[in-house]
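Students often ask what a holo structure prediction actually looks like on paper. The answer is less mysterious than it sounds. You provide the chain, you provide the ligand, and the output is a string of discrete structure tokens encoding the 3D arrangement of the protein together with S-adenosyl-L-homocysteine.
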Amino acid sequence: MRRRRVAGALDIFLSHENYALLDDEQTNQKIRRFADAAPLHVEVGSGRGGYLCQMAKRHPDRKFVGIELKEELLMAAVRKAAEAELDNLVFIRGYAENFKTWFEGAAVKTLYLNFVDPWPKRRNARKRLTHASYLQLYKSAMVDDAQLILKTDNRHLYLFSIVELAKYFKVVDSTHDLYAVGDPQNVATEYERRYVAKGKKIYRIICKIEE
Ligand code: SAH
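The corresponding structure tokens follow.
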């Protein structure tokens, strides 16, 4: 996701104390306190937070966590959350590489990957957030009946991800054109809105932990 450099973005993010977590030795403890033993619904690469804010509004009984690298996007995300006075959503500033540390002892019930970077060159395949090495990290914190849901506009990422996901999960549903199939429960992300407006097709894969 593109960002405009904003001076002080990290400070603004951090000033929203109820919503902002950094990647440090307290992250795991803070996540578990936030969860309070409830299952968590996590988006990796949460961008400007539009998706999670909508989901948190729609499901006040669920707890959501966004993971994002870029402070300009995190700044926008916490502002949205604060404006909507949400109390069931937090954002971690950090690399998904550290997923396992943050969620150790927590119960991840849904893992959302929405429009993650496709890294089209083969030599960059390991950077795709659906690469097997990431899937193992996510899976380590997921509960038995957890789901992983991927949405993308990118055919190559879709095809790559189907193969990777099948190594650790059971693919229970996949579509090449979410909007043709229709799903009344679907919440569009910021990227998704943009792609749909351009007439692009949206791919979706839903997986479960294999029994
Ligand atoms: N989910 C949003 C944004 C998609 S863009 C939407 O659908 O609108 C993908 C996002 O993933 C970018 O904001 C990027 O900064 C973030 N990202 C990429 N690699 C990451 C990593 N290793 N850890 C955490 N976030 C990452």
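The longest helix spans residues 155-168.
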